[in-house]
Amino acid sequence: MEITRIIMIKLCVSFSLSLFISSFSIAQDFQGKAYYQSKTPMNLGNWGARFSEAQKKEIAARLKNRLEKTYILTFNKEESVYKEDEKLDAISGATDSWGKNFTAGIQYKNIKTNTFLQDQEFYGKQFLVTDELKALKWEMGSESKQIGQYACFKATVSVPADEVEWWNFSWDKIRNEEASDEKEPEMIAVEAWYTPMIPINQGPGEYWGLPGLILEVSVGNTTMLCSKIVMNPKETVKIKAPSRGKVVTKKEYNTIIIDKMKEFRYNRIGR
After folding, report:
1. Mutual orientation of helices 250-270 and 171-178 as an angle, nearest 10°?
2. Model confidence band, residue 168 (pLDDT cutoffs 50, 70, 90)
3. Using CB atoms within 10 A of its CB, is residue 101 exposed (0-12), middle (13-18) or buried (19+)?
4. What is the Cα–Cα distance from 133 to 128, expressed in whole angstroms?
5. Which residue spans within the chain are E strands per DSSP?
6. What average pLDDT does this structure show over 57-81?
7. Of residues 48 and 51, which shows the higher confidence score?
8. What CA–CA distance (Å, rounded) separates 66 from 39?
9. What's the pLDDT score for residue 24?
10. Which of 47, 56, 130, 234 is the most exposed place for a label (fewest CB within 10 A)?
């Protein structure tokens, strides 16, 4: 029965796919917008044992902007721009200025030219992080599920942990850098669900390369789920690659962050 169900789903997807491809061939300049909700559970670890439930709720409310975010992916057949829909802090009514130093800026992907760009600001300085768009070695699965009105299929891949949210900072980065012995890079599992009903190779963040738009991605304890898709909106939005800032590679940008945080640590110990 399970095999029959999968076959029927694939036949339906194949039929829908042919309709989409037919309509896209008529409208060569199609574009769309996908809205994603990103959620990460709060984990206070052993440190959180000292807090009451009321205190934990207050901390969760203050961290809401960092734990729950909305992103918009604007795409066409070859390009995409992925950016956060910034919200005001529920408690103070202000943006999260400290956290902004360690959050992703506007990401641009071009699958035709294999280009990746990210507009990144760090402590008032503007950087343009540029790199090749790295191909992910997806393992295609047979599992399927429905996300909204779209039939989706599962794919998985393992990526180096230090490449996940490379723009972010943790003290582990310094500890790993200062470790004398060389260690095998830690790998982290990525689970994605894509729909062939929208036959483009795009997805949220740096995840791409599947035969359909990626609607859901789970990386570690963070999940990005598409909540809405608008195909061919009435108001055409031109996808523009970011161009401001000092041009650096991902590796160079990470070195800048680590050096700055080392400076902060040194100054704190000095005082």
Report:
1. 100
2. confident
3. middle
4. 15
5. 32-39, 68-75, 79-84, 106-110, 115-122, 125-132, 139-147, 150-160, 187-195, 213-219, 222-231, 246-248
6. 77
7. 51
8. 9
9. 43
10. 234
